[in-house]
Amino acid sequence: MEKAMISPSILAADFARLAEDVADVQARGIDYLHIDVMDGAFVPNISFGPDVMKSLNSTASVPYDVHLMIEDPDRYIEKFVTDNTEFITVHYEACSDLASTLDHIHSLGIKAGVSIKPGTEPEVLDDYLENIDLILVMSVEPGFGGQKFMENSLPKIKYYSDRKSEKGYKYLIEVDGGIGPANAHVVRDAGVELIVAGSAVFKASDRTEAIRAIKGE
Ligand code: DX5
Ligand code: ZN
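Above: inputs. Below: predicted complex with D-xylitol-5-phosphate.
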């Protein structure tokens, strides 16, 4: 069985007890913390900003995997740089000059990710693959947790996995939305290396078991 790493989305945590919830899942074997930032413009929802993320700096023992669902994200990238930030991921659809946004992230010493929405074809990233450290395939329309997994993400994961094996690219392949213990094997089999899960982790009756099952352990 294929294995993957997990990045629980704190969007599904109890915001009134955020640090406790994060410490709890960290003790159960997670690899990253997925930070979902929504601006009310690129997506029809508002989540939280950099100060909420930074309130976790003293709690976080795994790196941040920041997912910026923000129009023109260059305006805010600096604000998400901390000692805990490993990846900052922007949306292909939200950038007018993706190459320069990738350079911007790299100039801050951070790994650069790019996400594509369910309606975006995987080939749009062909010219950038060498400069991307993480590709985030959305398996729901970005904006809300707790939605149903979309199967059209699977051929995209496979596409990036095949390009990676053919050309030796270094990027990590991540998927986000609607994934839990029951369907995680499908994305792992398609070649995903990092799985985002919000509700399936934070709302699980047995979080340890949910994390293990999603990772394929
Ligand atoms: C959607 C977010 C996802 C989402 C995942 O815009 O990017 O990270 O919160 O939540 P679940 O796992 O509940 O679908
Ligand atoms: Zn996300």
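Residues 9, 34, 36, 67, 176, 196 surround zinc ion (ligand 2) (CB under 6 Å).
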